[in-house]
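Open question from group meeting: does this chain pack into something compact, or does most of it stay loose? Before anyone orders reagents, we agreed to write out a predicted structure and look at it together. Recording both the input and the output here so the notebook holds the full record.
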Amino acid sequence: MPHEPQHYPPAGGKTYKLGRIAIAFKACGADTNGAYTLCETVEPPGSGAGLHRHPTYDETFIICEGRFAFRLGDKDYEIGPGETLFVPRGTPHSFVCIGPENGRQLIISSPGGIFEAFIDDVVAAQVDSGDPTRPAPAVDFRAIATKYGMEFLS
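Structure tokens returned:
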């Protein structure tokens, strides 16, 4: 059964805060019959993702604002607004917003469902119960990544 069309303003959609990065999911795998996930990220200078790979999905990065330094395999790229970078599944890659302003990008992952489930699990693992006597939970980021077929390399 087709889903109702959804319209989200900038930074609208199912939104998460992961450290200093804001992630808003515009279309999840359930919305696209598993074809893709589309999210928008807003990242301050110096934030990004360390070197990693995922053999289960491809990613396309579309830069809307700011500048980003990407490592893709053994090549380095610096890209800005209007530029796109495709990362085939299994390819080691990393990126960082190089500022000086916040960066904003759209990320398409295909097939859909994997990336948003990973982010949901990571954020859920960081939730504090509200008990001030309990220390903040230690999140085993790499173990969660492994659950989704991702491997962080640095």
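Observations to bring back to the group:
The first strand starts at residue 14 and ends at 18.
The chain has one domain: 14-127+137-152.
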